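Sanity check

After download, print the first record. It should look like this:
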Amino acid sequence: MKKTVTMLWLLLLSAVMCSAQVRLPQIFQSGMVLQRGTNIPVWGQADPQQTITVRLHKKKCTTVADANGRWRVDLPAMKAGGPYVLEVRGEKSEVITLTDVWVGDVWLCSGQSNMETTLERVSPQYPDELNDSNNMVRLFHVQYQTDTHQPSSNLRPTSWKPLNRANAWRFSSIGYFLGKQLQREKGVAQGIIESAWGGTPIEAWIAADSLAKHFPVLHRQTLLYQNDAFVQAQQRAGMLANQRWQQILDEGDPGMQAVEGSNGGLWTQPTFDDSQWTMVNQYDLLPTQREWIGSLWLRQHITISKAHAGKAAQLLLGTLYDSDVTFINGVQVGSTGYQYPPRRYQVPAGLLREGDNVITVRFVNKSGKPYFVHEKPYRLVFAQDDVQPLAEQWKLHKGLEMPYSIGRGVDLQYQPSTLFNGMISPIAPFAVAGVLWYQGESNADTPQTSDYASLLRLMMANWRQAFQRPQMPFVIIQLANYMEPSAQPQNTGWSMVREAQRLVAKEDKYAELAVTIDRGETVDIHPLRKKDVAQRVALAFERLLWNPRTVLSPEVKETSFVEGQVVCALSQSLLHDGALYEFEVAGADGRYVNAEAEGRGDRILIKSPIAHPVSIRYAWKNNPIRANVYGKNGLPMSPFQMTVIQK
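Expected structure tokens:
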């Protein structure tokens, strides 16, 4: 009996001690970087009225948890240094000890897929920079999380990791290159927080109370998704609809007929007779059809030499639309579920044989029609200097035509406020040196395009309030050039978003614009030259935080109309004088026409084909491929639209 009482007492004491534990948010972990030169907020949960003591190096702060168990201290500003130990102690609980803590600079990288674009994705562009390691750069990847109801109190489990190939491979490449550069230049620890989600609109990153006040319709859109039963039902319905669509496709597709001993269907087999299939060029698969919903099969025979037979290789299949499953000699070597990722499939040793081999691609499309993307690599790679190009000619056969899929789930990441709640609020008010914002593609050509400047201003004000830093610096990465070039004037959503980004950065003395109008790709919404982007971001932060004399992209300071020419006075001299392109002029009717231009020193002279020009614009296209205005430091001028001052 006495033993039983003792055990019960110990269990009760253990339960009391567990309930009294002090808890820290996920952002506070061993290996983290804290911001130098400013107060360092540290916060968490404990029992109500419990006294909490926080120590870092020689600093100590004490506070008492409020009636809801919330507590916070602000450690005084510290110089860069480390490694230190952070201790958090409650009067009723064990001490929390975080080790390997550094004080340096912390950067928050946010936005959509171009901010997410990983080191792995851009690795072919930078083969000599993939194996770097630097213990003074720490990476923190915020896991996907949404909340339609309220700001989340914490993040999903994650951790701070030192920069090396393994940890950076799936991390933001912009964050990777920025961290390396600034650590090298500043000599202090760098903390890179990536909180981004591909395809998401700006309104998803703005707090509900801000939207309710300024964009009430967007806020009401969020309210629609606060019915959890509805959301769960929609998500289940979408899942079941997709499963049924795929089941009907697979069961009815003649190419999927089972073959004993193979994980591929009949049409993937190297011995299958494809002599009656149609020969097509990969860039014109179905020339007479506007779309093809269902499966489409392509086969290409390649001859492998004796020297290459049996060797491991990498199959580069560029970028495809939309999803694919790819086989070599009947063995699946890769699959991708949507259009954007590059197809880089590993071919295991022993699969390729001397003589004839067959690559089979099964396209599956729920919209549009299948196609290969131009200007991408299509080849077998055995070594860096040992490649075998694929032919553009393929044999084609239709698999099974399908109706449109009957349903889809609810994608909460696209709804207003859900990502502020799930992926920003749990971080705030963690001290950061600045924010990198790379987003806008998903707001081009939408009902919110014309409101993008207002939404961007609201988001920046919202985050500054959440982080309790009214002067928190932002670098806005302007949308890069993309899509098919046009020789004629265009009025596009992409240009409108770029202009909104330019104007917001210009009017905010704690923001700068990183211009990337020359770093895009015609055929890829995710251009690879992310190191250049990071370098331009670093320059912008240099100007914001350390050296206001840092020269960035040239700007037009004023315009005038003199003797048939629009004269643009610039903020700096041009890199080169001579002919300049992608300028347009409009009169009172607002119709823009192409105009010849010439650079002379710190002036641009535009020959007006209109007698009374009212407005000019530059690089106002999805992909202004000929834009060539560069400042003396080699940075491009931003696209712009501007009124002409008559003199």
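If your output differs, re-run the checksum step. Summary of this record's structure: The chain has a mean pLDDT of 94.
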